[in-house]
């Protein structure tokens, strides 16, 4: 093979990408003799704009790990696929009339091309596309198992609704209270839909986080999202009525401080009390107004609104006092019991509401903090009024004004007072069941049909995939587009009988992505979603890399899915992702977020076209530890490009003539190649395992900058030099580079066949073994000798640990970097600290 004079990534990269794809080098081995490693990326949504830099970052990191693990002797599964259902393709269809299927196919082809052009070693044979019937057949199969096992149910509940687009929206499609598409204010609408019983697993979803190696902040955030809360349920009688209001409280110890109650506007008891409510008109208006607000509006609002239910009084079960009853939207209908006992002296929201409505504030917990500490940001006047009321604290303390419980600690009193009033202890979770119905087209149809009485039946497995009809009109009307498919209704009647109708909602796309990792190991299996054998071999996932923004939805849903499938005996493990890491954000060079509107988005394609994939990959990883935010600065990628160019030259240049054998010998003995190489092998391996690709790359640079001065390849051509640096060491150098810059490494590797007939040079470098290092070569023999001039560090050299003072001095004085500091000057003194430094005083 003729070497190119200059480094030409374009040529090398496309050549190897073709060879890799055609030769199947990245195909999963499924070799039972090797330990397995399943490494997974969060699969992309194939949008029209293509891959972004965030993908480039996380996919490069998994690719490095994949290649490294493969060379370490693992059987690695490194798959990629497409999360292909979703609203953008449907919106595009609404605008242009192009069927989402077409857009999706086109976008996927583009993504694959882009991913390949970055030199990613995915096993494309295992590819999945969630919008394909072969895949969603199994999404529906899972729904069917949930249906049979009582893990999914239908109910009418409030959802986010955009009146302009006439569609329900997922929480993530509501941006600042508006529709992400048209910015119209999102309202709440009650419609029937299907729900997965994720709340059944709330406890395990919290506890099992202890079993996995995930970033601590992700675990904490997920726990908070699930929101476990221990408290009591206590009944309050309504005066002159048989009715009771049940409240959930985490502070039963404050029961004597309750001065009013609040019921959520949607609470059904308000309707039951309607005839006794004297100001029903304003209360009813308020209920209607509340319906327009999202939960976020309600929780986030500083303005506490609400009305008293005039004519209604409740009785505090602790002291039989009569208290007023309010309805206010700061109390949510779907948390706890939808009603609260208000303790304005010890709860900020109640406090604000009480101030506004002139309600009594009665402290029952002795002060332990200062007022300013409890309610930061209050005005002087309010602080004064709180002080005058003898007011206390948010936290726990000792009880006062609480009858026979006075003097008891809050913790004790919670239990004692709950018992005293006949309440019950209760654990609540913030987590709600997962609403999976969408009134959209581009999703997996919910495999349910309704009989003449409207009773739901699951579509039997033999009819799966329950195909998404294609004869639909995309213009939004407020009803699911599937409702307009003639074929869909005819199909249902033909199979199930006259008058039977299909469910016309589709599934949330998060359902499709909550189980996709289970499919890759056996993605072509038409009989099972994954065979037992493949499941045992590959699952669970060993390493998962993707954005932290998925903490609340995808990562939680995937864990639920695994637990639910385990419960019904389909899986035998309970956590899907043993180890999880997030990539940090890729920012522009000024630290700004990349966004279309700012016009600062960097397109990976442009970068690859200009610098080559190897340089893009290496620069991306060089920017910082994987989990940190990094700033992409185009001016600096050139440095990496030059480095690769030097590597290229070191192996290809014909510069042997410029060195004499003797000067080369000297050069090499100074390098102490054995030491540097062994140390680098050790540290690069450790850095890769710890996701510190940036430091791994710096170490490779140090290594190559040293050895790069040697015309390596020429050594082998010239037997005089064989002894200087072995072929074996040169191989190691190239292999170390391979996970980061696979194309150049593969090219250099194959170039070794020029000087040897060894068969291995005809194989891919990725079939070679990752080099072992010799610990003894690193530790005992050498250290980093610091050379100072007048106390300032001017050079570092590797020196033998038993270097004598004389030798160290000679070494220091002979260094090029030192000469310029001492030239023409008199050396007054030389200080030698054994094992550390030489200081030349001039
Ligand atoms: C009286 C009380 C006194 C409360 C006090 C707190 C402090 P977590 O920890 O989040 O579970 N609450 C109960 N149901 C509610 C609902 N549907 N909407 C809004 N607030 C509700 O919070 C539990 C506390 O939040 C409960 O304890 C209740 O207020 C309120 F010094 O009861 B507490």
Mean pLDDT equals 89
List the uncertain runs: 654-658
- β content, as a range? 15-25%
Give the total of domains: 4
Quaternary state reads: single chain
In the CATH hierarchy, the third-tier topology of the largest domain is known as: Isoleucyl-tRNA Synthetase, domain 2
* 3D shape: globular
The helix count comes to: 30
CATH architecture of the largest domain: Alpha-Beta Complex
Q: Please give the share of residues in helix.
A: 25-40%
Bound molecules: ligand ANZ
CATH class of the largest domain: Alpha Beta
Cα separation of the termini: 55 Å
CATH superfamily of the largest domain: Valyl/Leucyl/Isoleucyl-tRNA synthetase, editing domain
Strand segment tally: 28
What can be said about the biggest beta sheet?
7 strands, mixed
Structural class call reads alpha+beta
Give Rg in angstroms.
34 Å
């Amino acid at each position: 093979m003729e070497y190119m004079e200059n480094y030409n990534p374009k040529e090398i990269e496309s050549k190897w990408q073709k060879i890799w794809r055609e030769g199947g080098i990245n195909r999963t081995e499924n070799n039972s003799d090797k330990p397995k490693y399943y490494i997974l990326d969060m699969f992309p949504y194939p949008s029209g704009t293509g891959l972004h830099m965030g993908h480039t970052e996380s996919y490069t990191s998994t690719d490095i790990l994949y290649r490294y693990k493969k060379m370490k002797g693992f059987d690695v599964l490194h798959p990629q696929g497409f999360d292909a259902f979703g609203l953008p393709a449907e919106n595009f269809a609404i605008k242009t009339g192009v069927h989402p299927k077409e857009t999706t196919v086109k976008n996927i082809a583009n993504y694959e091309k882009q991913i390949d052009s970055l030199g990613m070693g995915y096993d494309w044979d295992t590819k999945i596309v969630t919008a394909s019937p072969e895949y969603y057949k199994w999404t529906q199969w899972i729904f069917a198992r949930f249906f049979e096992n009582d893990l999914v149910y239908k109910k009418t509940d409030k959802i986010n609704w955009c009146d302009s687009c006439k569609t329900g929206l997922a929480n993530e499609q509501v941006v600042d209270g508006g529709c992400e598409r048209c910015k119209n204010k999102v309202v709440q609408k009650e419609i029937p839909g299907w729900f997965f019983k994720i709340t059944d697993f709330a406890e395990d979803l919290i506890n099992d986080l202890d079993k996995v190696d995930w970033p601590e902040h992700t675990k904490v955030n997920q726990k908070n999202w699930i929101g476990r809360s221990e408290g009591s349920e206590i009944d309050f009688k309504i005066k002159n009525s048989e009715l009771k209001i049940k409240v959930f409280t985490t502070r039963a110890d404050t029961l004597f401080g309750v001065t009013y109650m609040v019921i959520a506007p949607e609470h059904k008891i308000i309707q039951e009390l309607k005839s006794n409510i004297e100001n029903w008109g304003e209360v009813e208006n308020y209920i209607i107004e509340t319906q327009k607000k999202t939960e976020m509006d309600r929780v986030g609002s500083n303005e506490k609104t609400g009305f008293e239910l005039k004519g209604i009084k409740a009785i505090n079960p602790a002291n039989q006092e009569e208290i007023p009853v309010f309805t206010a939207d700061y109390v949510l209908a779907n948390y706890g019991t939808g009603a609260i006992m208000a303790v304005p002296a010890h709860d900020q929201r109640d406090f604000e509401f009480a101030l506004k409505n002139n309600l009594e504030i009665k402290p029952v917990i002795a002060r332990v903090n200062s007022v300013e500490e409890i309610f930061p940001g209050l005005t002087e006047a309010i602080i004064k009024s709180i002080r005058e009321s003898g007011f206390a604290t948010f936290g726990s303390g000792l009880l006062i004004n609480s009858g026979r419980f006075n003097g008891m600690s809050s913790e004790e009193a919670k239990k004692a007072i709950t018992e005293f009033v006949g309440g019950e202890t209760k654990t609540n979770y913030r987590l709600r069941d997962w609403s999976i119905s969408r009134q959209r087209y581009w999703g997996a149809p919910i495999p349910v049909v309704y009989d003449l009485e409207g009773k739901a039946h699951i579509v039997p497995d033999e009819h799966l995939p329950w195909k998404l009809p294609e004869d639909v009109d995309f213009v939004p009307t407020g009803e699911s587009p599937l409702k307009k498919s003639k074929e869909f209704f005819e199909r249902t009647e033909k199979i199930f009988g006259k008058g039977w109708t299909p469910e016309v909602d589709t599934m949330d796309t998060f359902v499709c992505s909550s189980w996709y990792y289970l499919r890759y190991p056996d993605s072509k299996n038409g009989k099972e979603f994954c065979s037992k054998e493949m499941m045992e071999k590959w699952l669970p996932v060993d390493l998962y890399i993707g954005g932290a923004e998925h903490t609340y939805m995808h990562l939680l849903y995937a864990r639920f899915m695994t637990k639910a499938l385990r419960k019904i005996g389909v899986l035998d493990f309970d956590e899907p992702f043993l180890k999880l890491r997030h990539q940090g954000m890729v920012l522009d060079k000024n630290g700004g977020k990349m966004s279309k509107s700012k016009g600062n988005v960097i397109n990976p394609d442009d970068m690859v076209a200009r610098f080559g994939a190897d340089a893009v990959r290496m620069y991306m990883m060089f920017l910082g530890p994987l989990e940190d935010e990094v700033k992409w600065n185009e001016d600096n990628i050139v440095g990496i490009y030059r480095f690769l160019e030097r590597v290229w030259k070191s192996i290809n240049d014909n510069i042997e003539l410029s060195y004499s054998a003797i000067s080369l010998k000297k050069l090499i003995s100074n390098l102490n190649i054995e030491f540097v190489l062994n140390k680098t092998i050790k540290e690069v391996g450790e850095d890769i395992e710890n996701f510190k690709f940036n430091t791994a790359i710096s170490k490779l640079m140090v290594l190559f900058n040293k050895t790069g001065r040697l015309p390596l390849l020429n050594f082998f051509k010239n037997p005089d030099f064989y002894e200087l640096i072995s072929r074996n060491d040169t191989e190691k150098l190239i292999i170390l580079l391979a996970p980061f810059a696979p194309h150049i490494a593969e090219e250099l590797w194959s170039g070794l066949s020029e000087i040897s007939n060894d068969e291995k040079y005809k194989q891919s470098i990725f079939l070679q073994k990752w080099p072992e290092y010799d610990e003894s070569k690193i530790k005992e023999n050498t250290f980093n000798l610091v050379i100072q001039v007048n106390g300032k560090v001017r050079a570092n050299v590797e020196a033998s640990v038993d270097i004598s003072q004389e030798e160290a001095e000679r070494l220091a004085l002979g260094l090029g970097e030192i000469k310029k500091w001492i030239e023409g000057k008199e050396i007054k003194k030389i200080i030698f600290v054994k094992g550390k430094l030489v200081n030349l005083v001039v």
